[in-house]
Every structure is written in structure tokens, then in C-alpha cells.
Input
Amino acid sequence: MLKNKTIILGVCGGIAVYKSVELLRLLVKAGASVHVIMTQSACQFVTPLTFQTLSGHPVHTELFNLLQEMEIGHITLADRADLFIVAPATANLVGKLAGGIADDLLTTTLMATKAPVLLVPAMNVNMYDNRIYQRNEGILREAGYHILEPDCGYLACGWEGKGKMPAPATIVEHATALLAEKDLVGETILVTAGPTREAIDPVRYISNHSSGKMGYAIARAAQQRGARVILISGPVAIPVPVGVKLVSVVTAEEMRQAVLAYLDVATVVIKAAAVADYRAAEVSGTKIKKGSDDLMTLSLIKNADILAEIGAHKEGRVVVGFAAETTDLLENARKKLLSKNLDMIVANDITEAGAGFDVETNRVRFLLPDGEVENLPLLDKSEVAQRLLDRIARMRGH
Ligand code: PMT
Output
């Protein structure tokens, strides 16, 4: 979504500048063309050369630099931007903007732009709580600026409290959401993700290799496109997408209960979770001890098929499943599509390089009940999510 977008990254002087370097790297990695404007104070913390090297563009620092004015100029820069991010935004910058002061290149360009502006304040907690600062932030919010709340924690000045600049990945998520087309407004999308765990005893469980990356990418993209998203997730170790309601579960039965509890409000269900098909017939209350026999038999009992249950009572909602296969991909996936009464199934052959469990990419095929098959190339999971949501948006008449 940031691909080929022009972003201006304004950098003020504060210790959080070191995080702006990583932010720039992530924006460039996402395909954006980023032009950096640094204040004089920012240059005291990190040299413009660092930002120039990572952005591949000259860094702008001077309002009255004739060469820069002729080649780009602050007005041209302001006009060209799809998005303007200021990170970190200091109390000084916020105060100047709120007061309409434009006395350096950053404030002048900010005043001249018509692009959406995302301010990422970072400062000492007492400065942040200061009533004058809060008044200024209020003025900017009312004027349509987007302002991220700082994180709480240990601050570089030695104080604990609110004032930390959020992680660069979080800022990128907000930036992406600001630029996304809001074609899923009005939809409530229930996404399941990750594995389930079925206990054998207090120490051991049955599970699988799902990391949750595929399901979380879908939840994130749907939220950015304007949907309300409920993410029902098994145990994973990845951050919750911004703005998404997370419901954490462990077992298949807990996932089933959570899905059924939210089903009524869902207009779309996407089941990317890798649900355990079986659980231990008996869960031991104490650790099972090693016996003298070499062979140990564990009796398993079938879990309810959540997707089949939803498919049997669709009541107008779009229901999409995933199929993780190691053989006969299309044939097996089609059987699941039809037997579970789905509107679409996303088939992934988990033996293919770069596809399936715990990788950043996936190679999937979309299978539809009318026999249509769309073959997608190997893509980042975030891009697979976008393509899937494009399909769903069309099914929902957007
Ligand atoms: O999480 P990642 O590491 O990113 O990996 C992604 C993924 C490989 C887990 C994902 O892309 C995927 O394929 N998810 C579905 C895995 C799976 O359980 O497939 P299945 O063929 O066993 O199940 C078919 C469908 O029925 C799935 O939508 C599953 O959620 C659902 N199901 C299965 C069993 C069950 N008891 N209840 C269910 O709802």
C-alpha cells in the first residue's frame, strides 16, 4: 500500500531520532519514495548522511538553500507528498504548528502541504502532560492532523511515563492505514489465526507449526481497509495489529466457542487458523511418567470442525477457509470447499519453498465453487492478504 507513494519524513531533535532511522528503512522497504526534512536540532543527534544513504535522496535542512529551492523547493515537496510523517514530533514543533509559525524548512513545508499529516510526538512525560502542550495537540487534532499517542515506559531522560516514540513498525501500520482505500467500511470481519494447542498432561500438548503470520496479515489489512476486525488467535508470538480486537484462545474448543460468540456480528469469516483435528481423549492431571515399554499409545478424539459448522449456517455472510496440503493440493482443497459449503478456499501447498507455515511469504490458489481457480505467484503474506480482501470486497459488492 505504500508502494510508489511519496512520503515526507520530518525529523525533529530528540533522542528518539535513532528510531526514525529504522522508520525510514521500513518505509523504503515497503516501496515508498521518502524525502527527509531534518531540523537543525535533529542534525545534532544523527547526521543527514544517515538519512540520505537510506532514503537515496538528498536530505533537506535549510529553508534558504538556493540549490534545493531550484531543484525541489519546499512548496514542490509539499505538493508532491501523499503523506507527511513527523517523527519524532517535539513539543516545540507541535507548539509552532498550533500557533501557525513557519520559521524553518520543516514548519514551512508542513504549513504548505495538503497531504495528510501524521505526527508522532516523543518527549519527557512532564512536557507531554503540560497543559500548554495538550492544548496545542488539541488544536492540531481539531485541524485534522493525525496524532499518535506515545508509548509508556522508561524515558531517556530518566523518568517513567508516557512519552516514548512508538515502535517504527507501529508507525508504518498507521501510515499504511492512512493511505489505504477504505473499501471495507461497514464490514465486520472475523479472522482466525495461529495454531491450537491440545493438552496431553500439564507439560505436553499436540499442536502444529502455524505462526499466525498469515491470519494476522489478513486482520491487519482488513482493519487498514476500514473493516471492524475481530481476530481469534491461538498462541503466537507476533504483535497484535493496530486497531484490531484480539480474542486469545488455546484449544480448538475455545476457538469454536469464541467464533460462535462473535458470529452474529460478522459479515465475513476467514479461517486461517490451523486447528488441531484431534485432542487427547483423556488429559492427565499430572505429568505422565516414562514407562518401561518402548511403545506408548495415545488415544485421540476428534475436535468439532468449526468451519463446517459455520458453513452449514452462513446466513448471508461470506465464509472463506484455508487448506494446508502436502499432496493433491487442488483436489483436496476443492473437497473442503464443497463439503464445508464455503464461498472460497485458499489452498497452500506447505511443501513448496516460501509457502505455508512460519515464513513471510506464501504461494496460494483461490478456489471458488463455480470451478474458477486463481493461481497467485509467491508473494509476501501482506500482499496475499490484500488479494484475498480484493476478492472478498467484490463478493460483498464493494
Ligand atoms: O500461520 P502461518 O505460519 O502464517 O501459516 C499459515 C497457514 C499455513 C497456517 C495457513 O495459511 C493455513 O493454511 N491455514 C489452515 C491450516 C489448516 O488447518 O488447514 P486444514 O486443511 O487442516 O483445515 C481446513 C480449514 O478448516 C481451515 O480453514 C481450518 O481453519 C478449518 N478447520 C479445520 C479443522 C477444525 N477442527 N476446524 C476448522 O475450522
Observations:
- The longest helix spans residues 381-395.
- The chain has two domains: 6-179, 188-395.
- The pocket of PMT is lined by residues 194, 210-214, 252, 271-275, 277, 303, 305-307, 321-324, 336, 348, 350, 356-358 (CB under 6 Å).
